[in-house]
UniProtKB/TrEMBL annotation:
Chief subcellular location: secreted
Alphabetized UniProt keyword annotations: Cell wall, Cell wall biogenesis/degradation, Membrane, Secreted, Signal
Signal peptide segment: 1-20
Membrane topology: Peripheral membrane protein
Similarity comment: Belongs to the expansin family. Expansin A subfamily.
Bilayer-crossing regions: none
Role, per record: Causes loosening and extension of plant cell walls by disrupting non-covalent bonding between cellulose microfibrils and matrix glucans. No enzymatic activity has been found.
Gene Ontology biological process terms in this record: anatomical structure morphogenesis; cell wall organization
Compartments where located: Secreted, Cell wall; Membrane
Species per Swiss-Prot/TrEMBL record: Cardamine amara subsp. amara
CDD domains: DPBB_EXPA_N
Listed name of the protein: Expansin
């Protein structure tokens, strides 16, 4: 077995040994606020590396996470179900919402914990206005919530946006189903071995290996241990700034 085959076998073997039901079924306590206006312009881009959330399929069903939940960007792409509870501002019979983590709610250490909801160890969701007002009254401002991790449901295949330059390739991985939060990425040119990429920030990954002019393949792994291989996603004529979609999703 050659090195390339060995790599794929080792990485995909995590599927058989991982707890594939690791998404939390138990509800936890947090609080929620909102940022931006109803159009959601202020929620675009952010600390996970995503860009236009409408074009990327996330829309306004998003949130910025506090330090306790953000986990230095490793939670980017994860999905949560959120329910407003124990507040006069909760909308009756509103039910729950589902959001994807796309941004970071930074702490403010100049203020005490009780006055800045995103300070550690607080668990907090700063929602888009549309999502907040789906479960609570606008004038409430901040409400207690229950939340849990859920599987992400995405349309189409996993997408890879290639950025950077010939000497420093960066790839934004998005529209990931299943657990949603990618914690390992490998890349391969048709003339190279598999190369583990490094997390640059959020869901942007990088390598210094030159792969221009080669067909590009990827292996991604999410936090629940599931992995998927995407062969020859990008043709040898790919250029920086292009996005390529895999034929399947997790």
């Amino acid at each position: 077995m050659n090195r390339s085959m060995t790599f794929v076998v080792l990485l995909t073997s995590f599927v058989s040994v991982a707890n594939l039901t690791s998404i939390d079924s138990a509800w936890d306590d947090a609080h929620a606020t909102f940022y931006g206006d109803i159009s959601g312009g202020e929620t675009m881009q952010g600390a996970c590396g995503y860009g236009d959330l409408f074009k990327e399929g996330y829309g306004l069903e998003t949130a910025a996470l506090s330090t306790a939940l953000f986990n230095n960007g490793q939670t980017c792409g994860a999905c949560f179900e959120i329910l407003c509870v124990n507040s006069q501002w909760c909308k009756p019979k509103a039910g729950s919402i589902r959001i994807t983590a796309t941004n970071f709610c930074p702490p403010n250490y100049a203020e005490p914990i009780q006055y800045h909801w995103c300070n550690p160890p607080n668990k907090h969701f700063d929602l888009s206005m549309k999502m907040f007002t789906s479960i609570a009254e606008y004038r409430g401002g901040i409400v207690p919530v229950k939340f849990r991790r859920v599987m992400c449901q995405k349309s189409g295949g996993v997408r890879f946006e290639i950025k950077g330059n010939p000497y420093f390739i960066m790839v934004l991985v998005y529209n990931v189903g299943g657990a949603g939060d990618v914690n390992s990425v490998a890349i391969k040119g048709d003339n190279s071995n598999w190369i583990f990429m490094q997390r640059n920030w959020g869901q942007i990954w990088h390598t210094g290996v030159r792969l221009v002019g080669q067909k590009i393949s990827f292996v991604i792994r999410t936090s629940d241990g599931r992995s998927m291989t995407f062969y020859n996603v990008a043709p040898e004529s790919w250029t920086f700034g292009q996005t390529f979609e895999g034929s399947s999703n997790l």
